[in-house]
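Section 3.1: Structural characterization of target chains.
Under the original work plan, the team committed to producing a structural model for every single-chain target entering the pipeline before any wet-lab resources were allocated. The record below documents one such target. The sequence was received from the expression subgroup and is listed exactly as submitted; it comprises 237 residues.
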Amino acid sequence: MLITGAARRVGAEVARTLHAAGANILIHYRSSAAAAIALADSLNAIRAHSAAIHAAHLLDPTTPDALVAATLGAFGHLDVLINNASSFYPTPVGSITLPQWDDLVGSNLKAPLFLSQAAAPSLKARRGLIINMVDIHAERPLRGHPVYCAAKAGLVMLTKSLARELGPEIRVNGVAPGPVLWPEGDMPDALKREIIDKTALKRPGSPEDIAGAILFLAAHAPYITGQILAVDGGRSI
């Protein structure tokens, strides 16, 4: 199994949950080396040789093939690709730059596409699965974030398109989290309360909620493909 952006936050919890279910994990990271090493060490302490790490910039055109090769080299096969890594920051109209466009579209849409393409032969051989981390803001725009929202909207359609292109051997689904972990950096408490108040459950979720949904899609949903599973406490309704 290959998980991008798996060293920290939700990605790390997904790695721990799927590892506990028996998966071997290739932990991709870009700059969080200490966290990636610590996570791999903790997983290998539970089950030897069950976790490996690989550092790479997802916008490097050599990265997709390198990550797939690293996974095959570590474990001999690839069953599941989880496109979790994502850049997120505001880009108000009037201040958007080409580097911001390249970064946000690159991490949220381009990288999942080319990683999926690179992984497809190996996944096909194992009748595997691709899971893309989407966002409620693929359908409900977030003020000040037009580039991020457009990239995630593209990822929704990519998920559905790949499900059609890669079936019947490979399933492709998405998970759309609600308020689970706040973005790193300052966010006003009033805005956090406003977001939570818009959920039906009136409370934030947890990384474990997202990891549980991904485990469901990976292990217990063999007839689900081309779908986006909202794990958002009812925020999307």
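The chain has one domain: 2-231.
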